[in-house]
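Quick one: structure for this chain?
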Amino acid sequence: MARVSLILGGARSGKSARALALAAAPQVFIATAEALDGEMLERIARHQGERGAGWRLIEEPLELAQAVRANAAQGTTLVVDCLTLWLSNLIHRERDIGAATDALVAALGDAPGRVVLVSNEVGMGLAPMTALGRDFRDAQGRLNQRIAGVADHVEFIAAGLPLVLKGAP
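Got it. Here's what it folds into:
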């Protein structure tokens, strides 16, 4: 069983469902989303319903490395959903993405339990029209590469189907 897993895919690809399927009890869900509008409130409610009972919820939109360090424990699985929203939160608040990524990589290396991270693969489509969009796409690609580099297991999800990129299936 992989200690650190990264689940990549496009929007509505089945990433979160796959991450939940890989999680072993007891489970902690670290949510990076913020309910800033009605649509996001609905998404959050849907995800909570999909998890069901038995999950401990940590809401942490910015200090992800701290949340991993505080909640990782031997015999526990952390599911982090998702790195894409975390990155967006960092950019919006003008945080140092490199330093935050370094801190997360270090926390993953020190985590005594399992960690399953969800992230969007945003670099497979057309180039964004705006400089901000291109900067975000590039930052997401760098973040995914860093996490994939330290992960024992990486999967790409398309149409709900997993394709193992690294590690045992």
